[in-house]
Amino acid sequence: MSFSDFSLFLISELKKTILNIKSDRLFYYFWIPVFIFSISIIGWFGNYNRVGLFLYSEVFLYSLLLFVISYILYYFVILIIRKERRPLRCFYYKFLVLLYHRHFFFSGVIMLLAINVFSECYSIIKGMIYFIDPFSFDFTFHKMDLFIFNGYPAWQFFDFIYEYPKIISIINLMYNFWFFLVWGSLLYFIFSLNNNYRMKYVISWVLCWFVIGNILAVLLSSSGPVFVHRLNSGNTLYLPLIDTLNRVNNILLDIDWPIKVWALNTQDMLWNAFVSNSDILGKGISAMPSMHVSMSVLMALSFWHVKRSLGLLLWVYTFIIYFGSIILGWHYAVDGIVSVPVTYLIWKITSLLCDKSMILSKKND
Protein backbone atom coordinates (compact mmCIF):
# COMPACT_ATOMS: atom_id res chain seq x y z
CA MET A 1 0.00 0.00 0.00
CA SER A 2 1.42 3.36 -1.05
CA PHE A 3 1.55 6.36 1.26
CA SER A 4 -1.23 8.00 -0.75
CA ASP A 5 -3.47 4.94 -0.41
CA PHE A 6 -2.72 4.74 3.31
CA SER A 7 -3.63 8.42 3.71
CA LEU A 8 -6.91 7.92 1.91
CA PHE A 9 -7.61 4.91 4.11
CA LEU A 10 -7.00 6.94 7.29
CA ILE A 11 -9.20 9.77 6.02
CA SER A 12 -11.96 7.30 5.23
CA GLU A 13 -11.68 5.71 8.68
CA LEU A 14 -11.77 9.13 10.33
CA LYS A 15 -14.88 10.19 8.39
CA LYS A 16 -16.71 7.01 9.35
CA THR A 17 -15.73 7.46 12.99
CA ILE A 18 -16.95 11.08 12.92
CA LEU A 19 -20.29 9.89 11.54
CA ASN A 20 -20.61 7.53 14.50
CA ILE A 21 -19.70 10.33 16.89
CA LYS A 22 -22.43 12.47 15.29
CA SER A 23 -24.92 9.67 15.91
CA ASP A 24 -24.05 10.05 19.62
CA ARG A 25 -24.69 13.80 19.53
CA LEU A 26 -27.55 13.59 22.06
CA PHE A 27 -25.01 12.46 24.67
CA TYR A 28 -22.79 15.48 23.91
CA TYR A 29 -25.80 17.82 24.06
CA PHE A 30 -26.01 16.84 27.72
CA TRP A 31 -22.32 16.40 28.38
CA ILE A 32 -21.22 19.85 27.11
CA PRO A 33 -23.40 22.01 29.42
CA VAL A 34 -22.68 19.69 32.37
CA PHE A 35 -18.95 20.00 31.70
CA ILE A 36 -19.12 23.80 31.26
CA PHE A 37 -21.10 24.19 34.49
CA SER A 38 -18.73 21.88 36.38
CA ILE A 39 -15.59 23.55 35.12
CA SER A 40 -17.09 26.97 35.94
CA ILE A 41 -17.74 25.94 39.55
CA ILE A 42 -14.22 24.54 39.81
CA GLY A 43 -12.79 27.76 38.38
CA TRP A 44 -14.92 29.94 40.64
CA PHE A 45 -13.22 28.37 43.64
CA GLY A 46 -9.80 28.52 42.01
CA ASN A 47 -9.26 24.81 41.40
CA TYR A 48 -8.56 24.80 37.65
CA ASN A 49 -5.11 23.38 38.30
CA ARG A 50 -6.68 20.19 39.69
CA VAL A 51 -8.45 19.30 36.44
CA GLY A 52 -6.70 16.53 34.54
CA LEU A 53 -7.38 13.55 32.34
CA PHE A 54 -5.76 10.60 34.03
CA LEU A 55 -7.07 10.19 37.59
CA TYR A 56 -9.73 7.74 36.43
CA SER A 57 -7.76 6.29 33.51
CA GLU A 58 -6.57 3.34 35.56
CA VAL A 59 -10.14 2.62 36.62
CA PHE A 60 -11.29 2.61 33.02
CA LEU A 61 -8.45 0.32 31.96
CA TYR A 62 -9.12 -2.19 34.74
CA SER A 63 -12.86 -2.02 34.14
CA LEU A 64 -12.36 -2.46 30.40
CA LEU A 65 -10.07 -5.44 31.00
CA LEU A 66 -12.58 -6.99 33.40
CA PHE A 67 -15.39 -6.31 30.91
CA VAL A 68 -13.50 -7.99 28.05
CA ILE A 69 -12.60 -11.01 30.18
CA SER A 70 -16.18 -11.31 31.44
CA TYR A 71 -17.54 -11.11 27.89
CA ILE A 72 -15.12 -13.79 26.65
CA LEU A 73 -16.08 -16.08 29.53
CA TYR A 74 -19.77 -15.39 28.94
CA TYR A 75 -19.45 -16.19 25.23
CA PHE A 76 -17.45 -19.30 26.06
CA VAL A 77 -20.22 -20.53 28.37
CA ILE A 78 -22.78 -19.87 25.62
CA LEU A 79 -20.72 -22.00 23.24
CA ILE A 80 -20.57 -24.81 25.80
CA ILE A 81 -24.34 -24.68 26.29
CA ARG A 82 -24.77 -24.81 22.51
CA LYS A 83 -22.30 -27.72 22.39
CA GLU A 84 -20.42 -25.90 19.67
CA ARG A 85 -17.92 -28.18 17.95
CA ARG A 86 -15.73 -25.38 16.60
CA PRO A 87 -15.49 -22.72 19.31
CA LEU A 88 -12.34 -21.12 17.88
CA ARG A 89 -14.12 -20.51 14.59
CA CYS A 90 -16.98 -18.86 16.49
CA PHE A 91 -14.51 -16.59 18.29
CA TYR A 92 -12.92 -15.76 14.95
CA TYR A 93 -16.26 -14.78 13.40
CA LYS A 94 -17.10 -12.74 16.50
CA PHE A 95 -13.82 -10.90 16.07
CA LEU A 96 -14.69 -10.17 12.43
CA VAL A 97 -18.01 -8.68 13.53
CA LEU A 98 -16.22 -6.44 16.02
CA LEU A 99 -13.71 -5.44 13.35
CA TYR A 100 -16.52 -4.57 10.95
CA HIS A 101 -18.06 -2.24 13.56
CA ARG A 102 -14.70 -0.72 14.54
CA HIS A 103 -15.90 2.85 13.88
CA PHE A 104 -18.68 2.40 16.39
CA PHE A 105 -16.12 1.26 18.96
CA PHE A 106 -13.79 4.16 18.12
CA SER A 107 -16.63 6.58 18.80
CA GLY A 108 -17.33 4.69 22.02
CA VAL A 109 -13.76 5.32 23.13
CA ILE A 110 -14.27 9.06 22.47
CA MET A 111 -17.41 8.96 24.60
CA LEU A 112 -15.45 7.14 27.30
CA LEU A 113 -12.79 9.85 27.26
CA ALA A 114 -15.49 12.52 27.62
CA ILE A 115 -16.90 10.66 30.63
CA ASN A 116 -13.38 10.40 32.02
CA VAL A 117 -13.05 14.20 31.93
CA PHE A 118 -16.47 14.59 33.54
CA SER A 119 -15.51 12.10 36.27
CA GLU A 120 -12.46 14.20 37.06
CA CYS A 121 -14.67 17.29 37.43
CA TYR A 122 -17.17 15.37 39.57
CA SER A 123 -14.41 14.20 41.89
CA ILE A 124 -12.98 17.72 42.28
CA ILE A 125 -16.40 19.22 43.10
CA LYS A 126 -17.08 16.42 45.58
CA GLY A 127 -13.82 17.32 47.29
CA MET A 128 -14.95 20.96 47.46
CA ILE A 129 -18.31 20.31 49.17
CA TYR A 130 -17.03 21.04 52.67
CA PHE A 131 -15.55 24.36 51.56
CA ILE A 132 -18.76 25.39 49.79
CA ASP A 133 -21.10 24.34 52.62
CA PRO A 134 -19.41 22.77 55.69
CA PHE A 135 -21.67 19.73 56.28
CA SER A 136 -24.59 21.55 57.84
CA PHE A 137 -27.25 18.82 57.54
CA ASP A 138 -25.83 15.85 59.46
CA PHE A 139 -27.87 16.43 62.59
CA THR A 140 -31.03 17.00 60.50
CA PHE A 141 -30.63 13.66 58.76
CA HIS A 142 -29.81 11.98 62.06
CA LYS A 143 -33.11 13.25 63.51
CA MET A 144 -34.98 12.07 60.40
CA ASP A 145 -33.54 8.59 60.92
CA LEU A 146 -34.70 8.67 64.55
CA PHE A 147 -38.20 9.55 63.36
CA ILE A 148 -38.25 6.72 60.82
CA PHE A 149 -36.83 4.06 63.17
CA ASN A 150 -38.85 4.83 66.28
CA GLY A 151 -36.17 6.77 68.14
CA TYR A 152 -33.18 4.66 67.07
CA PRO A 153 -30.34 5.55 64.68
CA ALA A 154 -30.81 3.39 61.58
CA TRP A 155 -27.72 1.24 62.21
CA GLN A 156 -28.82 0.49 65.78
CA PHE A 157 -32.23 -0.62 64.60
CA PHE A 158 -30.42 -3.44 62.78
CA ASP A 159 -27.83 -4.10 65.50
CA PHE A 160 -28.60 -7.86 65.54
CA ILE A 161 -26.66 -8.20 62.26
CA TYR A 162 -23.37 -7.35 63.98
CA GLU A 163 -23.56 -10.65 65.86
CA TYR A 164 -22.75 -12.29 62.51
CA PRO A 165 -19.33 -10.91 61.50
CA LYS A 166 -19.04 -13.10 58.39
CA ILE A 167 -22.30 -11.69 57.02
CA ILE A 168 -21.01 -8.16 57.65
CA SER A 169 -17.82 -9.02 55.73
CA ILE A 170 -19.78 -10.44 52.77
CA ILE A 171 -21.98 -7.33 52.67
CA ASN A 172 -18.81 -5.24 52.67
CA LEU A 173 -17.45 -7.34 49.78
CA MET A 174 -20.63 -6.76 47.78
CA TYR A 175 -20.48 -3.06 48.66
CA ASN A 176 -16.95 -2.85 47.24
CA PHE A 177 -17.89 -4.88 44.16
CA TRP A 178 -20.37 -2.13 43.32
CA PHE A 179 -17.44 -0.12 41.98
CA PHE A 180 -16.70 -2.69 39.26
CA LEU A 181 -20.38 -3.13 38.43
CA VAL A 182 -20.83 0.62 37.91
CA TRP A 183 -17.98 0.88 35.43
CA GLY A 184 -18.70 -2.50 33.87
CA SER A 185 -22.34 -1.60 33.19
CA LEU A 186 -21.24 1.72 31.70
CA LEU A 187 -18.84 -0.08 29.34
CA TYR A 188 -21.54 -2.60 28.46
CA PHE A 189 -23.94 0.10 27.29
CA ILE A 190 -21.32 2.28 25.60
CA PHE A 191 -20.16 -0.63 23.45
CA SER A 192 -23.57 -2.25 22.92
CA LEU A 193 -24.60 -2.38 19.28
CA ASN A 194 -28.28 -1.85 18.45
CA ASN A 195 -29.27 -1.38 22.08
CA ASN A 196 -32.26 0.95 22.42
CA TYR A 197 -31.29 1.75 26.00
CA ARG A 198 -27.66 2.61 25.28
CA MET A 199 -28.09 6.39 25.07
CA LYS A 200 -30.65 6.43 27.87
CA TYR A 201 -28.27 4.71 30.25
CA VAL A 202 -25.14 6.69 29.43
CA ILE A 203 -26.88 10.07 29.68
CA SER A 204 -28.67 9.03 32.89
CA TRP A 205 -25.33 7.83 34.27
CA VAL A 206 -23.75 11.27 33.77
CA LEU A 207 -26.81 13.15 35.03
CA CYS A 208 -27.06 11.05 38.19
CA TRP A 209 -23.45 11.78 39.11
CA PHE A 210 -23.91 15.46 38.28
CA VAL A 211 -27.36 16.17 39.73
CA ILE A 212 -27.29 13.79 42.70
CA GLY A 213 -23.56 13.47 43.33
CA ASN A 214 -22.67 17.14 42.90
CA ILE A 215 -25.63 19.53 42.98
CA LEU A 216 -27.77 17.82 45.63
CA ALA A 217 -24.67 16.81 47.58
CA VAL A 218 -23.75 20.50 47.88
CA LEU A 219 -27.30 21.65 48.67
CA LEU A 220 -27.76 18.89 51.28
CA SER A 221 -24.17 18.88 52.50
CA SER A 222 -23.47 16.15 55.08
CA SER A 223 -20.47 14.01 55.98
CA GLY A 224 -22.13 10.78 57.06
CA PRO A 225 -22.24 8.90 60.38
CA VAL A 226 -18.61 7.69 60.49
CA PHE A 227 -17.16 11.15 59.94
CA VAL A 228 -19.16 13.36 62.30
CA HIS A 229 -16.90 12.63 65.27
CA ARG A 230 -13.75 13.32 63.25
CA LEU A 231 -15.16 16.68 62.20
CA ASN A 232 -16.39 17.53 65.71
CA SER A 233 -14.89 15.60 68.62
CA GLY A 234 -17.83 16.66 70.75
CA ASN A 235 -20.28 14.79 68.53
CA THR A 236 -20.19 11.23 69.84
CA LEU A 237 -23.53 10.07 68.42
CA TYR A 238 -21.95 7.48 66.14
CA LEU A 239 -18.90 6.44 68.15
CA PRO A 240 -20.76 3.26 69.26
CA LEU A 241 -21.18 2.36 65.56
CA ILE A 242 -17.45 2.83 64.89
CA ASP A 243 -16.60 0.76 67.99
CA THR A 244 -18.98 -1.97 66.81
CA LEU A 245 -17.41 -2.10 63.34
CA ASN A 246 -13.94 -2.32 64.87
CA ARG A 247 -15.12 -5.11 67.18
CA VAL A 248 -16.49 -7.04 64.20
CA ASN A 249 -13.27 -6.51 62.28
CA ASN A 250 -11.18 -7.77 65.23
CA ILE A 251 -13.28 -10.94 65.38
CA LEU A 252 -12.68 -11.53 61.67
CA LEU A 253 -8.94 -10.99 62.20
CA ASP A 254 -8.91 -13.45 65.11
CA ILE A 255 -10.56 -16.22 63.10
CA ASP A 256 -8.38 -15.40 60.07
CA TRP A 257 -11.40 -14.82 57.82
CA PRO A 258 -10.17 -13.63 54.39
CA ILE A 259 -12.73 -10.83 54.08
CA LYS A 260 -12.53 -8.04 56.62
CA VAL A 261 -14.50 -4.85 57.30
CA TRP A 262 -12.64 -3.02 54.53
CA ALA A 263 -14.89 0.01 54.98
CA LEU A 264 -12.79 1.02 58.00
CA ASN A 265 -9.60 1.31 55.92
CA THR A 266 -11.43 3.12 53.12
CA GLN A 267 -12.90 5.60 55.59
CA ASP A 268 -9.43 6.26 57.01
CA MET A 269 -8.07 6.77 53.50
CA LEU A 270 -10.83 9.24 52.57
CA TRP A 271 -10.39 11.11 55.83
CA ASN A 272 -6.63 11.44 55.35
CA ALA A 273 -7.19 12.68 51.78
CA PHE A 274 -9.79 15.15 53.09
CA VAL A 275 -7.45 16.52 55.76
CA SER A 276 -4.49 16.80 53.38
CA ASN A 277 -6.67 17.93 50.44
CA SER A 278 -5.04 15.23 48.29
CA ASP A 279 -6.21 14.10 44.87
CA ILE A 280 -7.15 10.44 45.07
CA LEU A 281 -9.68 8.25 43.34
CA GLY A 282 -13.16 8.94 44.73
CA LYS A 283 -11.87 11.78 46.91
CA GLY A 284 -14.18 13.82 49.06
CA ILE A 285 -16.61 13.15 51.90
CA SER A 286 -20.31 13.29 51.18
CA ALA A 287 -23.30 11.29 52.42
CA MET A 288 -26.55 12.76 51.10
CA PRO A 289 -27.75 11.54 48.67
CA SER A 290 -26.23 8.07 48.36
CA MET A 291 -24.54 7.50 45.01
CA HIS A 292 -24.12 3.82 45.83
CA VAL A 293 -27.90 3.49 45.98
CA SER A 294 -28.45 5.79 42.99
CA MET A 295 -26.17 3.80 40.67
CA SER A 296 -27.62 0.51 41.90
CA VAL A 297 -31.13 1.73 41.11
CA LEU A 298 -30.02 2.93 37.66
CA MET A 299 -28.44 -0.43 36.87
CA ALA A 300 -31.58 -2.26 38.00
CA LEU A 301 -33.86 0.01 35.95
CA SER A 302 -31.81 -0.33 32.78
CA PHE A 303 -30.95 -4.04 32.91
CA TRP A 304 -34.59 -4.82 33.65
CA HIS A 305 -35.18 -3.96 29.99
CA VAL A 306 -32.19 -6.01 28.83
CA LYS A 307 -33.04 -9.18 30.75
CA ARG A 308 -35.75 -9.35 33.41
CA SER A 309 -33.97 -11.96 35.55
CA LEU A 310 -30.81 -9.82 35.60
CA GLY A 311 -32.86 -6.74 36.44
CA LEU A 312 -34.53 -8.58 39.33
CA LEU A 313 -31.13 -9.70 40.62
CA LEU A 314 -29.91 -6.10 40.52
CA TRP A 315 -32.96 -4.94 42.47
CA VAL A 316 -32.02 -7.43 45.19
CA TYR A 317 -28.46 -6.14 44.99
CA THR A 318 -29.78 -2.56 45.37
CA PHE A 319 -31.45 -3.51 48.64
CA ILE A 320 -28.19 -5.09 49.88
CA ILE A 321 -26.29 -1.92 48.95
CA TYR A 322 -28.83 0.23 50.78
CA PHE A 323 -28.64 -1.98 53.86
CA GLY A 324 -24.84 -2.06 53.66
CA SER A 325 -24.62 1.72 53.38
CA ILE A 326 -26.31 1.96 56.77
CA ILE A 327 -24.65 -0.83 58.76
CA LEU A 328 -21.15 0.05 57.46
CA GLY A 329 -21.64 3.63 58.63
CA TRP A 330 -21.41 5.37 55.29
CA HIS A 331 -24.93 6.78 55.20
CA TYR A 332 -28.01 7.77 57.10
CA ALA A 333 -31.09 5.82 56.04
CA VAL A 334 -32.60 8.93 54.43
CA ASP A 335 -29.60 9.25 52.07
CA GLY A 336 -30.70 6.21 50.10
CA ILE A 337 -34.39 7.04 50.40
CA VAL A 338 -33.77 10.35 48.62
CA SER A 339 -31.58 8.74 45.93
CA VAL A 340 -34.24 6.30 44.72
CA PRO A 341 -36.96 8.70 43.45
CA VAL A 342 -34.44 11.24 42.07
CA THR A 343 -32.63 8.51 40.12
CA TYR A 344 -35.95 7.18 38.82
CA LEU A 345 -36.99 10.70 37.75
CA ILE A 346 -33.70 11.24 35.90
CA TRP A 347 -34.11 7.87 34.15
CA LYS A 348 -37.71 8.61 33.08
CA ILE A 349 -36.97 12.13 31.83
CA THR A 350 -33.89 10.95 29.95
CA SER A 351 -35.85 8.06 28.42
CA LEU A 352 -38.60 10.42 27.22
CA LEU A 353 -36.08 12.82 25.68
CA CYS A 354 -34.19 10.00 23.98
CA ASP A 355 -37.41 8.53 22.59
CA LYS A 356 -38.48 11.92 21.21
CA SER A 357 -35.03 12.47 19.71
CA MET A 358 -35.20 9.06 18.04
CA ILE A 359 -38.64 9.83 16.55
CA LEU A 360 -37.44 13.21 15.22
CA SER A 361 -34.32 11.59 13.79
CA LYS A 362 -36.36 9.01 11.92
CA LYS A 363 -38.66 11.73 10.52
CA ASN A 364 -35.66 13.71 9.26
CA ASP A 365 -34.26 10.60 7.61
Secondary-structure blueprint of this entry?
Blueprint: H1 3-23, H2 25-44, H3 57-81, H4 87-100, H5 102-132, H6 138-148, H7 154-157, H8 165-190, H9 198-219, H10 228-231, H11 239-254, H12 262-276, H13 291-306, H14 308-327, H15 333-364
Helix pairs in contact: 1-5, 2-5, 2-9, 3-8, 5-9, 8-11, 8-13, 8-14, 9-13, 9-15, 13-14, 13-15
Rough outline: globular
Strand count, sense and barrel status of the largest sheet are: none
Mean pLDDT: 86
Strand content: under 5%
Number of strands: 0
| Elements, N to C (H/E) | HHHHHHHHHHHHHHH
Question: Structural class of the secondary structure composition?
Answer: mainly alpha
Cα Rg: 23 Å
> In oligomeric terms, what are we looking at?
single chain
What is the percent of helical residues?
over 70%
Distance between the termini: 37 Å
Low-confidence stretches: none
Q: Total number of helical segments?
A: 15
Structural write-up:
This protein is mainly alpha-helical and 365 residues long. It contains 15 helices and no strands. α2 packs parallel to α5.
Index terms:
365 residues, single chain, 0% strand, 76% helix, mainly alpha
Brief synopsis:
Helix content is 76%, strand content 0%. The chain contains 15 helices and no strands.
